[in-house]
Amino acid sequence: GNLMKELLPFSEHPSGPLTALCTDIFTKILLTGSKMGHIICWNIASFLEDSQNKKNKIKEELCWRAHATKVVDLFIEEEKNVVVTASTDGSVRVWHATTGYYFGYFGQARKFELSDTSRLILPSDVNDFPAIIKSESKHTEKKKVKYPLMLDRDK
């Protein structure tokens, strides 16, 4: 994980070195897990269709904190539309694939309710809600900064 390139996603939390990767069956979505416990969902379909076209970029779509420690494995179950993550914290958790909503963990007493995404709950060790990335433009635009206090050596 420390040898892989560190990505700088558009979400407010840094991802850290990547420790786990997986794609969906059609290789349109790339899921990455990080050393910091984040899961990042990337849309890679247009990039893979024509990687020479500079307009086709890998786009970050969703980012959420899944674990308090390093993600060691993850996979997407497309039929149920869930992502399953495992971490060095010893937990295996289930998440909604397109929203990052938490369904629960393996070994819990209650059954997984995969159809109910209206109840937004989080694991006890995570307090950050999923961030859906709407557009890259707000993050890549250069901001004009005004410097009202400037040193005037003559004064």
Automatic annotation (TrEMBL):
Residues 9-96 form the IP5PC-F beta-propeller domain. Keywords: Repeat, WD repeat. The keyword Repeat applies. WD repeats lie at residues 64-100. InterPro entries: Beta-prop_IP5PC_F (IPR056454), WD-EF-hand_domain (IPR051242), WD40/YVTN_repeat-like_dom_sf (IPR015943), WD40_repeat_dom_sf (IPR036322), WD40_rpt (IPR001680). The keyword Cytoplasm does not apply. It comes from the Eukaryota. It holds the Pfam family Beta-prop_IP5PC_F. This is WDR64 protein. The gene is Wdr64_1.
